[in-house]
Structures are given as structure tokens and as C-alpha cells.
Amino acid sequence: MSQKFDVVVIGAGPGGYVAAIKAAQLGLSTACIEKYTDKEGKLALGGTCLNVGCIPSKALLDSSWKFHEAQDGFAIHGINHAGVTMDVPAMVGRKANIVKGLTSGVATLFKANGVTSIQGHGKLLAGKKIEITKPDGSVEVIEAENVILAPGSRPIDIPPAPVDNNVIVDSTGALEFQAVPKRLGVIGAGVIGLELGSVWSRLGAEVTVLEALDTFLLAADTAVSKEALKTLTKQGLDIKLGARVTGSKVNGEEVVVNYTDKDGEKTITFDKLIVAVGRRPVTTDLLAADSGVTLDERGYVHVDDHCATTVPGVYAIGDVVRGMMLAHKASEEGIMVVERIKGHKTQMNYDLIPSVIYTHPEIAWVGKNEQQLKAEGVEVNVGTFPFAASGRAMAANDTGGFVKVIADAKTDRVLGVHVIGPSAAELVQQGAIGMEFGTSAEDLGMMVFSHPTLSEALHEAALAVNGGAIHIANRKKR
Ligand code: FAD
Ligand code: AMP
């Protein structure tokens, strides 16, 4: 007889491992199957996020920002220094240590919560049976009352620029450069392209970003995307919009890239090229033909609003299902599914998932942007507060950007918070908390904010919605 669990999770990324821990906490016998191994060939839990995504990219963003500040940002504080140098292998090594600490932390959490960790490739068979192919090639079948599919996503390849893991790399390869490329190309001005382009630009690479669309950061509020384009360009990123890559040829240690823009065909040569054109769901060998689980037309596992698939007792979460490809979205879906398995009526508020781009300044938003609301015919009041008027931002010499609060003109309910500037990710989260509880701009304006903080910019932007900001001249009169 095969072993049977209450819950079996396939994939130990932020969707899968969080779901597994939650299930065990709620008293369900739980196993989590994961196949990813690190460079030493050891099982590494944590998925894309911990191994090759959120965390390693932020480690390099933080290191490269410190280098940039040490070179160009200290003199204004009266700190004189000379001869700052960089050690890229040490920087990349620090990142690897952080990854190791976190992935082994997940293994410890599995043990502490009683999750059975199984190394291998999981495949869903009919009747909620799961076939596991172990690293030694042996095959085991286990059974589950409930299955959670959390296999995540992988980078999209495009035929004009096939990844060779030497000159042409994807996001994973771009976290592993051992030296700063002189000329770096990035295909795609999305979140990943801008973050990785920023890392290597701060360390001295000449970075060119080729983006097929004419519009920059389509999902952001237009005021934010305009400010972002201006600032990132000033920082040295050469962002070419309307530039579609059509081909490439690797010659030894460089690559000649062909692209078309409004003026016709062009070529440009790079020492490294990062392909960052998006990610696609991983479903290879995940579902037996008779598993009953269906995919949608774009290859995502088909689920309802509660992540239930077409088979009762089988769920799918994270990057493999519709919606934004974000770690926090994956984790919350995992929690929702497990609580629903336990009989709770847990729902997830998909309207309030914050988005963040960890460039400098950071870019973050939650809720709807002004152009979306206008298109929907919603009348809004907008309050904006620039960090240039924030005492805390001045003290830190980090005054770029602004906070923008958008509220319903009739009810004053906050419908969107958009930030470009220092600690934007943290500020937007404060907006998200308020919005979850239905805050009005007036409510935010009436709250007491510590002084001096960057958060005061949110306070002032909320006050500005109704013409009541104190530290800037209000456009709107009360
Ligand atoms: P994954 O994290 O992809 O995990 C899926 C796991 O399942 C993998 O470990 C895989 O090996 C395993 N697996 C797949 N199939 C099987 C199988 N059949 N059997 C066994 N195991 C299997 N998101 C953010 O929110 N913030 C960020 O700052 C951020 N930065 C990012 C930076 C980069 C460079 C990248 C690439 C991504 C970033 N993301 C970020 C996105 C984030 O990493 C993903 O949204 C998140 O990891 C998705 O979680 P998941 O659990 O759905 O899948
Ligand atoms: P994201 O989906 O946010 O990761 O962003 C990926 C970006 O890559 C999108 O803005 C696409 O328009 C862009 N892109 C996709 N294919 C190409 C291409 N061949 N040349 C240039 N940009 C591309």
C-alpha cells in the first residue's frame, strides 16, 4: 500500500513551502516534493524566489547600491574617501551565502513543523496519486486527500536570442557574472530587466535596454513611469523603447544583436546579453494525461478564484496559475488553499497585491492607477507629495520621486497608492493596510505619523487629496 497524506505539495517555492508549513500547522499530515538542487548537488528548497529570484537579486541590488553610494554618494555627507574598489566574486559569494542560509532555513522549518520533505520530480496521476521520480531514478507513488500544485515558472526563451549561458544569459545567469561586463545588453524593460540592468550599471557596465513596446512600465501609473524613465536614464541606463530584437550572433566573447525600431533595422554589440522578456508556467511532465487537471489557452493550470482546479481536491497556486508572478501572491494563495481545505471560507483580495520594482528609487504601487480609473469613468481626487519636500529624505540625501494617493471623488475612499522614491515598497504597504480596511484619504490624513519619517510623505499626499497638505502648496483648494 502506498503512503497517504492529507496534503501533498509539488514544488517548494514560496507558494509550495508556505502552503506545506501552514498545512502541517493546521494538523494535516503533509509532504512536499521538490527536485531543485544547488551547485553542490544538494536539495535546495525555496524555489525561484530564494534560489535565483527575489532574494539573490535584492542581495546584488543592495551590494551594488552600496558601491555606487561609496563612489558617488558620500562626499555630500562630508565623508572623504578614495580608492573604493569592488570584488565581484566576493559580492556574488555573499549573495550565495544568503541564499544558502534561507534555503536551509526552509528545511529547518519543514522539520520543526513536521512536513515530510521528499526529493524528486512529482507528477499528478489520476485519483490524487502522485508519482515521484527520485534522483537515483527510482519511482515511488504516494496518495493524497488533497494535492497542491506549485511548480512555478521559468524564463521565456526567444528564438532571436537563444541563451548559451555564456554570452547570452537569462536572469539566473545574470546573477552569476564574475566580472562586470563592459557593454551589457538587456532585452525587456520589465521588472527583472530593470533590476538586473541596475545592478550591473551601478558596478560600471554600460547598459542598454531594448524594449519592444513604445510605452515604458505599462502597468505603472503614468506619472510614476515618466519619473522612472527620467531617473533611470539619468543614472546611465540607455533605455531604447520601440526596439524589438529580431536576431543575434555570438562571435567568441561578444554578441551582435539585431533590432528594429521606428527608423528601421539596427545592430548593437554587447559583451553580455540578458534575456528578460518574462516567465512562463512550468507544467512539463507535471500532469498525467488522465489526471483531469486542465490548462488554459496560455499554458497556466486552470483554477477558479480559490485556486481549485477542475479536479476536486486538487489545487494550484503561484506562478503556474493566472495573475501576477509574485512571491507574496504565491504564498497567500497557498495559505488560502490550505485554510479552505480545513473548511474555512478564506478569500484572497486580488485587488490589493502590491507591486514593487527594486530600482533606486524604488517603484511600488497598490490598487488602481489614474489612467485605469479614468478609463473606468471613476471620478478621482489626487494628492501628490514630493520627497524633495520631506525633511527625512533631505537628511538622507535621497529626495527623488513622490507619493501619489488617488481617492474616489465621491466617497474619498483610497483607490490607489503609487510611490517612486526611497523605501517605496514599505510605504506602499502602509497604503495597502489602509485600503484593506477601506480607508479614506481623510482617515490617512487624520492619523498621527512619526516625525521625521519618509512615511510622512504618504500622510501629506493623503492630505493633499482634499487640498490639506501642510508642507507643499496645495493644487486643490479646500
Ligand atoms: P517557484 O518559486 O518557481 O517554485 C517552484 C518550485 O517547484 C521550484 O523549486 C521547482 O524546482 C519546483 N518544481 C517544479 N516542478 C516540479 C515537479 N514536477 N516536481 C518537483 N518539484 C518541481 N517576486 C516578488 O514577489 N518579489 C521580487 O522581488 C521578485 N524578484 C524576482 C527576481 C527574479 C530575478 C526572478 C526570476 C523572479 C522574481 N520574483 C519576485 C518572482 C518570484 O520569484 C516568483 O513569483 C515566485 O518564486 C513564484 O513562486 P512559486 O512558488 O509559484 O514558484
Ligand atoms: P516582463 O513581462 O515584465 O518581465 O517584461 C518583459 C518585457 O520584454 C516586455 O515589456 C516585452 O515587451 C519585452 N520583450 C519581449 N520580447 C521582446 C523582444 N524581442 N525585443 C525587445 N523586447 C521584448
Write structural notes for this entry:
- It is a single chain.
- With 478 residues, this protein is of the alpha/beta class.
- The chain folds into three domains: 4-154 and 280-350, 3-Layer(bba) Sandwich (FAD/NAD(P)-binding domain); 168-277, FAD/NAD(P)-binding domain; 361-465, Enolase-like, domain 1 (2-Layer Sandwich).
- 31% of the residues lie in helices and 25% in strands.
- It contains 13 helices and 22 strands.
- The strands form five sheets. Strands 1, 2, 3, 4, 5, 6 and 17 form a seven-stranded mixed β-sheet that branches. Strands 8-15-9-10-11 form a five-stranded parallel β-sheet.
- The model has no long low-confidence stretch (mean pLDDT 97).
- Flavin-adenine dinucleotide binds at residues 10-16, 33-36, 47-49, 53-54, 57, 121-122, 150-153, 171, 192, 282, 286, 318-319, 325-328, 330, 358.
Structure in a nutshell:
The protein is 31% helix and 25% strand. The protein is α/β, with parallel strands linked by helices and 478 residues long.
Keywords for this entry:
478 residues; FAD/NAD(P)-binding domain; Enolase-like, domain 1; seven-stranded mixed β-sheet; five-stranded parallel β-sheet; binds flavin-adenine dinucleotide; binds adenosine monophosphate
